[in-house]
Amino acid sequence: MRQVLLFIIIGITGATFIGRLFYLQIYSTGDQNLYDDNAIRKVYDYPKRGFVYDRNGNLLVDNQPSYDVMFIPREVKPLDTLDFCKLLKITKEDFIKIYNKAYHYSPRLPSVFIPQLTKEDYAALQEKMRKFEGFYIQKRSLRHYQTTIGANVLGDIGEVNNAIIEKNPYYNMGDLIGKQGIEISYEEVLRGVKGIKFIQKDRFNRDLGPYKNGIYDTLPKQGKDITITIDAKLQEYGELLMQHKRGGIVAIDPSSGEILAMVTAPSYNPNLLVGRDRSKNFTKLYNDTIAKPLFDRGLKAQYPPGSPFKVLNALIGLQEKVVTTEDKFSCRMGYYLGSRRLTGCHSHSSPLSMNDGIAQSCNAYFANVYRRIIDKYDKADEGMDVWSNHVKSFGLGNYLGYDLKIGNKGNIPDGAFYDKWYGENRWSSTYNISNSIGQGEVEATPIQLANMIAAIANRGYYYTPHIIKSIEGEAIDENFTTPKYTTIDKENFEPVIHGMFDVYNKGTASTLQVPGIEICGKTGTAENFIKIDGVTTQLTDHSIFVAFAPKDNPKIAIAVFVENGYWGSRFAGKIASLLIEKYIKGAITRTDLEDWILRYSLDHEYEKPYSGEPFGINRNSTLEVVDDIEYNRLKEQLKHLSS
Amino acid sequence: MVEAQKYFKFDWITIFLFFLLVGFGWLNILSASHTGETIDYLDFSQRYGKQLIFIFLTIGLIIILLAIESKFYERFSSIIYIISMLSLVGLFIFGKNVNGATSWYGIGGMTFQPSEFAKAATALAVAKYISDLNTDIKRIKDQITVVTIIAIPAILVLLQKDAGSTLVYGCFIFILYREGLSPAYLLITLSLIILALFSLKFGVLATSITLSLIVLTHHFIRKRKPLIIQPISIIIGSILLSYGVKYFYDNILPFHQKDRITIWLSLEKDPEKLERMKKTIAYNLNESERAISSGGLTGKGFLEGTRTTGKFVPEQDTDYIFSTVGEEWGFIGSTMVVILFVLLLMRILHLAELQKSQFSRIYGYSVAGIIFMHFLINIGMVMGLIPTIGIPLPLFSYGGSGLWGFTILLFIFIKLDSDRINQW
To answer: Which of A20, A40, A206 to mutate to test the interface with B (most CBs of B within 10 A)?
Structure first.
């Protein structure tokens, strides 16, 4: 024992050390990755973010340099603070506050002194920069919008948040990322790939030079330019027409599914969300919970579609062969079941066939058609499912799959929906007769309605609406170039389209005719309610209009939705007609409509629920005009637009 | 010819291992101390350049050590010891303070650390005393004398705030045991260490209860029971000792040493405080562990360690040299170093057992013991197995005194061993 004890202890020690080494170096994988190594500084080289062009090649978004004034507290030498502060437009107190805060953070590391100087401030400062030791300028690239429109489409970029950094290792603190609109949809295309330089540093965080002479460094890959389907002129015109109104417009080219215009009102100038004031302005927009300028009504607002939905019931009726174009239904100012009126109607001649039923938007006609569809089958839920499938084949009741990140599913009920509500087969078509006229449980967003009209215009198919036209050197998603067919046969569309044509010819939109263009449309009026102090109160109806033109070889399908605009042809119809004319002809002949739209405002209508006073709606509501100064401003904008 | 052969009868395996470790050590000093992009090996303003000179001078030193008659070391051991002790005492008057320890003489631009040589001197003195025919290690009186020989340098270096070197002298307990000391001393020492650690980790109360249970159980299952007073007094003594350790730790131990033990035993549970400790008191250990860990299986390669190049581990070319090995040479390289040390130690022990003269055997054992303590404490500390104690890694760490101290220590033994070979 005496001879071997130390031998044993040495052996055990050696084995223990090797065990510990195994634990440290093999078992617990330390930061062996270059990216996680805190001895290596990663310096990123940011590529140019891709530009955005409209469908006609007009530049909409490019980049602008911005200048951050940086400093390293320890290296700051005594300076003429008065002069310095004057250049930066800050007070001496600000100076001391910023300096102390940064010094507290780290005296050795660079901190931002003033972020995002304007070009002018930068120019003034740059001349004297050498006098201020310890300060330097860091250039950054920000978005620059060549236009004041399309904020909801163009979106914006901002600093990544921690949740994204954790999920996606590409992003680092302070990186910019798309936050809204196409900037988020096409983030990876636009941003490119940043380059990286590895710098060896010491424990005081000082740079020692490139790590391994830069063999692992990469160059940045430029972001790609994209062309979007928006027609900037049409978009701008739409936004102008929507001034002093709230609502959404979506215009689609039915032959390709390209979104020509996507207006939401009220909107904002996209340049507000650039630079130093971004967060201040964003907060202001975000906090406007009444007008909701950040809420894209074209994509997200979900309303009962109202009368435009009737044309679908006509199509389904023909497809299911429960009605012919000649069948006439009588209307006694509404649809009656026995002596109970299920739905009202307005005055028109009676009885009506399909063509006039559509043109006059007769509620009773479609109540009859709807009942025949559902009652064709033995069980109501079976009939409901058939109806629901037809409707859904038009892209309603679910996300459309377009390339913008926001939206709503809308709602198209099926048999199971009512089985759950009333109990299995304890209901019939009369329980949900409102679906026949686009009220009740049916809900849709403006883009869904525009797409539905595009499918009708194409006589039975549609392309998924999309905002991307082309990406530099890349094909766009195949999904956008493949037609999606509806469940309705082609021949069934003609009579319905003719009915829609007659809406303009002699029906509810006869005052909106545009010379030289055969427009097919459908008016809509939707009741709506709001809760004021817990009391459900009805507001003036929403004005809805859908249309496509020309009747043959359609070029544009459009859905217009104006909140509290009352009947369909009053606001929405006029706007739709003007946009169609603008897009097809490039000039406006119906300047009377244009004047009317610019002149009349709905601002007073939107103030009503918040006034605290009792107010009248619909018939008991009056129209108001904007004052002359505002009117002239709008006219000026219009002139600028057409030049 | 016969004459010439005689001169070269040394244990070449030990010499080979010695140079292997010194050479590899120098590569790591180069890595840990170079600053610029280009390396000028003969730049003597750099530490790697200086160490190269030390290594070359070592060869001269070795020749001298091997040329001296073996008998000289035995005869003059007392004088060498006394001179060495005087040089330690002299530090109190002429010493130069480096990094808080007054253990250096400054002569011109050179510094010189006498404690590195005192170890060899003490080993000689201990060997000489025990091997004396009149000495019987089982006698209390002789035990006291030996302990005094060992305690003088141990206490002197402790007073110079070099606690690490003091611990090294603890290795003599193995040598004394080898030469006949009762195993009870080893057992008691071990028990006391366990008792102290247990008290710190689990508190005095838990220690007392556990201890009482063990002692009483042992007492009652014994066939020939001594008086009950014996276990009772053991228990009372231990509890007092346990309390004393706790008191010492809480009230007397300097803060930085207390914190080192706190970190080692994971006594701090507050994550915020722990995080702060990692940046202050445990910074060195934390960075060292991270550097070793980042080496992985094969390491980042010679001169490629990012943490070494960035000087993230302070003192990396001296006490923390092993973290350079860990980062740049990985698991394979570090394991090699551990194995080389184990081989060297076992070779020395093996040779010591072969010695015919008791003096040579004791001295050989002392050499192994001293190198082993350095090896244990240094590598254990760098990997966080034992609390931070400043002590160099033999033959590896930068420093002339250290290198020469170990060279003298080892080559005196090689010279003594050559006598054994030549007596054949």
So the answer is: A20
